[in-house]
Write a structure and sequence with these properties.
With 436 residues, the chain is α+β, with helices and mostly antiparallel strands. It is built from 11 helices and 19 strands. It folds into 2 domains: 144 residues, no CATH class; 233 residues, Anthranilate synthase (4-Layer Sandwich), CATH 3.60.120. It has a 19-stranded antiparallel beta sheet that branches. Helix 2 packs antiparallel against helix 9 and helix 5 packs across helix 11. Its EC number is 5.4.4.2.
């Protein structure tokens, strides 16, 4: 079986856009290399324009299979459009390396689902296309991919030695939290998510593939992702937060807010979990996200249902942190496209605040860096309208030997600046321990 991460390491060139996606819980990983069709867009209409781009591309798409597999999981895999959107409609920094909206249909798509592998190639063909030449190139690449079966190079490595400095220093972050708490007390908004950025530098260029390998080993319950712009920059991470999953018109989304560290012993871990479940402040922060998602889905005509356990949120327990978690489900009608749902949900109070518009204005004021793809939707949509999108948290922007790490904390009434700073520093560890 071919490992899509190995395919990414061996086949992708720096000049090509790429997308890597792995969810070990569902047994799925996928790599997309190069673009046969691509849209880069900015502005408020980016989601609707992306939907139009996908629909237009589908009208010109002809699919065929060399073999009809018996495995249903493989048979149902369709060409996918891979998407990345920034947190804001427009980036303030003109030199930020990713557009506020990018959608592409890949030339190569390698999928693994439940230990079965499928390779898919998308080609642009017109009256002047030399089919023999294209087939020769395709079969040459397929032979290379087949040669990678069961090939497991040493993608592991110890962390590189790097220097680091905080873009927003600890004192500034605590001052921002204190200021935000005063605004909350005055009734300006009820929650705001404040993020911090950490710049690190290595003597040599960071190895994207080894870093991704570390992430998937260290965070098996998270979505491991990477998207590259074809200009030398990549955005990678290990996100615990699913924004939406749509499969055969059945939607699942996550309300994920309220956090506590994992314990060093089983007893300490259980005590931390119990305090989190009983914390009025954390439960309030969590309820804001549930209420927001519910309202947005109702606006689309959906009927959200909550998945709770004995009347309380569940725990989403990760390697070094745990969150309050409430899955929300709904049936999606034929006339609602996944990107319409994304447009309504992004950003949720889990990464922005409440009320959303005011919180987003204040985020611009408090933060002196570009969020870009941080805390924003990344994922895919297939030709049948199935999709999966995550929120790009626990993430880093990589550019050669430079990396910018991002982490945020939700501020509500009762928040403690010192505890919020500790939460930020804890979240940075996900990438600090993985980057090589």
């Amino acid at each position: 079986m071919v490992d899509p991460l190995v395919v990414l390491a061996k086949l992708a060139r720096a000049s090509q856009v790429t997308f890597y996606w792995e969810n070990q819980v569902s047994g799925e990983s996928i790599v997309a290399i190069d673009a046969v069709a691509k849209l880069e867009i900015t502005g408020e209409a980016r989601f609707s324009s992306s939907e139009e781009f996908i629909q237009h591309s589908l009208s010109n798409l002809v699919c065929f299979e060399q073999d009809k597999p018996n495995n249903t999981d493989i048979k149902n895999i369709q060409p996918r459009f891979f998407c990345s959107f920034s947190f804001f409609d427009e980036n303030d920094e003109s030199d930020y390396p990713f557009s506020s909206g990018t959608v592409f249909l890949p030339r190569w798509q390698i999928s693994v689902k439940n230990n079965r592998c499928q390779a898919m190639v998308n080609l642009a063909i017109d009256a002047n296309t030399n089919i023999d030449t294209i087939l020769h190139v395709v079969w040459t690449k397929i032979e290379i991919i087949q040669s990678l079966a069961y090939y497991s190079p040493n993608l592991n490595n110890s962390p590189a030695k790097y220097s680091q400095r905080l873009v927003a220093n600890p004192e500034k972050f605590k001052a921002s939290v204190t200021s935000a708490l005063k605004a909350i007390g005055a009734g300006d908004f009820s929650k705001i998510v404040l993020a911090s950025a950490l710049d690190i530098y290595s003597r040599t260029a960071f190895n994207i593939f080894k870093s991704l390998s570390n992430l998937r080993q260290q965070h098996p319950n998270c979505y491991i992702f990477s998207t590259s712009n074809g200009k030398g920059q990549s955005f990678i991470g290990a996100s615990p937060e699913r924004l939406i999953n749509v499969n055969n018109h059945f939607l699942v989304t996550d309300a994920l807010a309220g956090s506590a560290p994992r314990g060093k012993t089983p007893e300490e871990d259980a005590a931390n979990a119990n305090r989190l479940l009983l914390s009025e402040k954390e439960r309030h922060e969590h309820s804001l996200v549930i209420d927001f998602i519910t309202q947005q889905l109702l606006k689309l005509g959906l009927r959200p249902q909550f998945v709770k356990f004995q009347g309380v949120p569940r725990l989403r327990q990760l390697s070094n942190i745990q969150h309050l978690w409430t899955p929300i489900t709904a049936v999606v009608p034929n006339n609602v496209h996944p990107l319409q749902i994304i447009a309504h949900l992004h950003p949720t109070p889990a990464v922005a605040g409440e009320s959303r518009d005011i919180a987003m204005q204040q985020i611009r004021r408090y933060e002196n860096f570009e969020r870009g793809l941080y805390a924003a939707p990344l994922g895919w949509v297939d030709t049948n309208g199935n999709c999966e999108f995550i929120v790009g948290i626990r993430s880093a922007l990589i550019d050669g030997n430079r990396a910018r790490l991002y982490a945020g904390a939700g501020i509500v009434a009762g928040s403690d600046p010192m505890k919020e700073l500790a939460e930020i520093q804890l979240k940075f560890q996900a990438l600090l321990k993985a980057l090589v």
